[in-house]
Amino acid sequence: MRIGELARRTGVSERSLRYYETQGLLTAERTPGGWRDYGEWAVDRVVRVQALYAAGLHSRRIARLLPCMRDADGGPSAIATDRLVADLTTERDRIDRMITDLIRSRDVLDEVIDTASEASASAPPPLGG
């Protein structure tokens, strides 16, 4: 499939797909006319890259992890190593810390919202209103 089709199917811009290619995250064959031509596997690869970016990984880290992951399901490939497991565990722990921090922030906001709501409900109406 051409780059425009891949962009349409994944919701990722053509510019981003070209960037992924320069970072070693995605590869394309070239047609005789020089157009990029991606296999069906590229859809899963782009979705996986997007998920890893969303998890806070940078492109160099993703490039090291991708060869050890199957595109279709994200499971480990035959070349997965103990290092991959250690790297993924480190990333999961970092994400867990981020989740904990976000929950703590949400709880603080909930307290402020509750307090402000109670104060507003019990306040006398404005004068002249």
Automatic annotation (TrEMBL):
<dbReference type="InterPro" id="IPR009061">
    <property type="entry name" value="DNA-bd_dom_put_sf"/>
</dbReference>
<dbReference type="Pfam" id="PF13411">
    <property type="entry name" value="MerR_1"/>
</dbReference>
<feature type="domain" description="HTH merR-type">
    <location>
        <begin position="1"/>
        <end position="68"/>
    </location>
</feature>
<dbReference type="InterPro" id="IPR000551">
    <property type="entry name" value="MerR-type_HTH_dom"/>
</dbReference>
<protein>
    <submittedName>
        <fullName>MerR family transcriptional regulator</fullName>
    </submittedName>
</protein>
<dbReference type="InterPro" id="IPR047057">
    <property type="entry name" value="MerR_fam"/>
</dbReference>
<keyword id="KW-0238">DNA-binding</keyword>
